[in-house]
Write a structure and sequence with these properties.
The chain has helices at about 1-15, 25-40, 60-75, 110-120, 155-160, 165-170; strands spanning about 50-55, 85-90, 100-105, 125, 140-145, 145-150, 170-174. By secondary structure, the protein is an alpha/beta fold. The termini are far apart.
Length: about 170
């Protein structure tokens, strides 16, 4: 009986303190999301910096900082003659309109609200979780036999996002 209780306690402890995030995936997203963003038509004419906001809840700020640091490191010289600026925000306190958002773990209703807001304002939305595409997020990363961008074609069409055909050809369509 003691072994069963100890095992249950150990299992619950591991589950409670387990991370939703994988450093390797964060590193891949840091490399891929800014490149995907630059293949969106509405950014082609921008002469300024491009702002990406990581939308996060308080308990995940450490992982958001890890992603921000990785993006800052990979793109310290910018991308396609544009400076990449990254901020970490909670959705409720977001006071500016970025060119893109990266959505970390949120409840379904919150993901839907963030995606709706982003889509309405023509803000490219990325998600750490590919399952968030179901809630209206525009893109994520597909990890399978190969790593590919994952594009939500329903959101793409419904909100008239224009993406470079090259990106569509490379992507796994949802």
């Amino acid at each position: 009986m003691r072994i069963g209780v100890f095992t249950l306690f150990l299992f619950l402890h591991i589950q409670l303190f387990a991370s939703h995030y994988n450093s390797t995936i964060l590193e891949l997203e840091a490399k891929i999301f800014p490149k995907m963003l630059m293949l969106c038509e509405n950014l082609a004419d921008l002469n300024r910096s491009v702002h990406i906001s990581i939308i996060v809840q308080e308990q995940d700020k450490h992982y958001a900082q890890e992603l921000k640091t990785a993006i800052d490191t990979h793109y310290k010289q910018g991308l396609m003659d544009k400076r990449i600026e990254v901020s970490i925000n909670q959705f409720q306190t977001l006071t500016h309109k970025p060119e893109a958002v990266i959505i970390f773990h949120h409840a379904q209703k919150e993901v839907e609200e963030i995606a709706q807001w982003a889509n309405t304002h023509k803000i490219v939305s990325f998600a750490y979780e590919p399952s968030y595409l179901e809630y209206g997020v525009l893109a994520s990363i597909y990890l399978g036999a190969s790593t590919k961008p994952y594009i939500n074609t329903k959101t793409l069409k419904e909100y008239n996002f224009i993406i470079n055909p090259y990106l569509l050809k490379l992507s796994k369509l949802y």
